[in-house]
Amino acid sequence: MVIQEINVEVASSFRDKLIGLMFTNNIRTLYFPNVSSIHSFFCKKEIAIFHLDKFNKVIDKYIIKPYRFGKFVKGTQHILECDKDLYSKIEKGTILKLNIINNKGGMFNERQ
Fold first, then answer.
1. Paired residues of 27 in beta bridges
2. Most buried pick, 4, 48, 68, 77, via CB within 10 A?
3. Which pTM does this prediction carry?
4. Sheet holding 78-83: strands in order across?
5. For 29-78, how does the pLDDT look when each residue is reduced to its tens digit (9 = 90+)?
6. How many C-alpha atoms does 59 have within 13 Å on its Cβ side?
7. How far is the C-alpha of 24 from the C-alpha of 16, rounded, in Å?
8. How far apart are CA 73 and CA 62, in angstroms?
């Protein structure tokens, strides 16, 4: 069993989940709890997608181009979106230990 630590921002509010990585060139690592599918509409770059089970174990991963729907992956409980450079550093079967770097009221509220 491989465990890997990763720093993430949590998309916890409806707005955070709706906007995600749209409209930005600054690709952060976003964790979407209780989300099983995504899209890349209005994203400016390709991004890496990791489907996670209830234990944050990577059950699938892929690179998605802008303006596409993500795959449906059975067993997905959470999704991680990040820069595609991270794709080769995290393997299927890895359990992610999440270090949450935003924990007050949502990503977009903190920036203003």
1. none
2. 48
3. 0.82
4. 58-64, 47-52, 78-83, 30-32, 3-10, 95-100
5. 889 898 888 878 777 789 899 999 999 999 999 999 988 989 999 999 99
6. 16
7. 13
8. 11
Domain of residue 67, residue span: 3-111
Q: CA-CA distance, 70 to 88, in Å (whole number)?
A: 19
Give the DSSP H/E element, type plus range, for residue 110. Answer: helix 107-111
Non-local CB neighbours of 19 within 8 Å, separated by 6+ positions: 108
Q: 66: domain CATH number?
A: 2.60.120.1140
Q: Torsions phi, psi of 8, nearest 5? A: -135, 155
Residue 5, strand partner residues: 97
Structurally, the chain folds into a number of domains equal to 1
- What's 35's DSSP letter? -
Tokens 């990585």, residue located: 21
